[in-house]
Structures are given as structure tokens and as C-alpha cells.
Write a structure and sequence with these properties.
232 residues; mainly alpha; Cytochrome p450; two-stranded antiparallel sheet; two-stranded antiparallel ribbon; 9% strand; Cytochrome P450; oxidoreductase activity, acting on paired donors, with incorporation or reduction of molecular oxygen; oxidoreductase; Cyt_P450_CS; heme
């Protein structure tokens, strides 16, 4: 991990540890926790979606069991809900910036060498020319089998880019998808969720490298599994 050349200083161990730690926190945990927070908020705002996900979990997992990894691929509506969350609230709204190694022309525009280029995935995912009712939270839009193949997270269609695309796509996409699905499935299967009495739901966003809720979500969990021992 230490790189030497005539023009490059050797990074100290502390600098390397700091860089790796920052990457793990931001790319590995912060993004997933924010996506879970937005998912719960959207489902509290549309309780029929939460109920449908919980019904699916109850059918596949059962109230006498906890969610395990092998259940995830058997939950199409949960996975459609996650896709819709990442459409409406992409965790990295401007993706990772890039720089062209030489001057090029893209879509009729000249992009000089070394320019910093951002892709506004947040705007693309809300474009009414691409998405019907783009500001509405509707997981059903991903339940169509044709669209389910088209709108995956692998960057195969430039209209849906939650993880980027091409050679520079998110390296942790497989882990991120599994982690997000497992966390959300476990939370929804094990608990019902409600807002504090008198509290109004705020879905406002706070922009940054990682998209966050402007106001942290505060909710109350209510146990829903039949066996209390499953919580220990």
C-alpha cells in the first residue's frame, strides 16, 4: 500500500489507516444506514407498502423464525422497495467524480482534459421523461418482470444508476445490496414501527457526498415475532 516514485512521498501508516477507515465508514456503513433510514421513512409515509413487505416476510420467513440470508432472494416486493428507495434517494446523489485523461466530446459538449465531471443521479432518477410520477414512492414500478431486468443496480441502463456504471461502478455493490436487504428485512420482520405521538414525518433531504435525511428519523419499534426468545 506504500507507493514510492520520484515525485511521490511515502504516506505514513497513520495516513493510510485514516484513509482506509474513512472509506469503510463512508462507503461501507454510512450509505447503507442512510438508505435504511429513508426506506423506513418512506414506508411510514405509505403504510400499505410496509404492510405488504411484512406480509411477504411473514409468508416466506414465518413469525416463528428470524430472517436469514437465504430468504432475501425470495422477497421480490422487498427488493422492489429497495430499488425504489435507491431511485428516489440515491445514497451518493452525484456519484463519484471523474476526470477525462484527454479532451473529449460528450453529447456535443467539449469536456477539457482534467475537468471534474459529476453525474447527477438524483436528477436522472426524478426525470419525468423517464419515470412516471417520479416524485411518488411506488415500489410497484419495479415489479414488472421486463423492467426488473432493465432496472437493476449494475448500471446497465443509464437512467438508473444507484451504484454508478462501467469500470468505475461501486466495488462493494454485491455486499451493499445484501446488507441493505438483510437489515431492512430484519427490521420489518421483527418489529412494527410507528412515529412518536404528535410527531410529523419529514422526508426532507440534506445533500452532501452521501445523501441524508435533513432531520434524523425517530421511531418506536413494537415487537411482532411470536417467540420472545428470537430477540436474544
Amino acid at each position: 500500500m506504500l507507493i514510492r516514485d520520484a515525485n511521490t512521498k511515502v504516506n505514513s501508516n497513520i495516513e493510510i489507516i485514516t484513509a482506509i477507515t474513512n472509506e469503510i465508514v463512508v462507503a461501507g456503513t454510512d450509505t447503507t444506514s442512510n438508505a435504511v433510514e429513508f426506506a423506513l421513512a418512506e414506508m411510514l409515509n405509505r403504510v400499505e407498502t410496509m404492510k405488504r413487505v411484512q406480509d411477504e416476510l411473514e409468508h416466506v420467513v414465518g413469525k416463528h423464525n428470524i430472517v436469514e440470508e437465504h430468504h432475501i432472494d425470495k422477497l421480490p416486493y422487498l427488493n422492489a422497495t429497495i430499488k425504489e428507495v435507491l431511485r428516489l434517494h440515491p445514497t451518493v446523489p452525484l456519484l463519484v467524480p471523474h476526470r477525462p485523461s484527454s479532451t473529449c466530446t460528450v453529447g456535443g459538449y467539449m469536456v477539457p482534459e482534467g475537468s471534474r465531471v459529476f453525474i447527477n443521479a438524483w436528477a436522472i432518477h426524478r426525470d419525468p421523461a423517464i419515470w412516471k410520477e417520479p416524485l411518488e414512492f411506488k415500489p410497484e414500478r419495479f415489479m414488472n418482470t421486463v423492467h426488473e431486468r432493465k432496472w437493476d443496480g449494475n448500471g446497465n441502463d443509464f437512467n438508473y444508476l444507484p451504484f454508478g456504471s462501467g469500470r468505475r461502478i461501486c466495488a462493494g455493490i454485491a455486499m451493499a445490496e445484501k446488507m441493505l436487504a438483510y437489515c431492512l428485512a430484519s427490521l420489518l420482520h421483527s418489529f412494527d414501527w410507528k412515529l412518536e405521538e404528535g410527531k410529523k414525518l419529514d422526508l426532507s433531504e440534506k445533500f452532501g457526498i452521501v445523501l441524508k435525511k435533513a432531520e434524523p428519523l425517530v421511531v418506536i419499534p413494537v415487537a411482532r415475532l411470536s417467540n420472545p426468545d428470537l430477540y436474544y
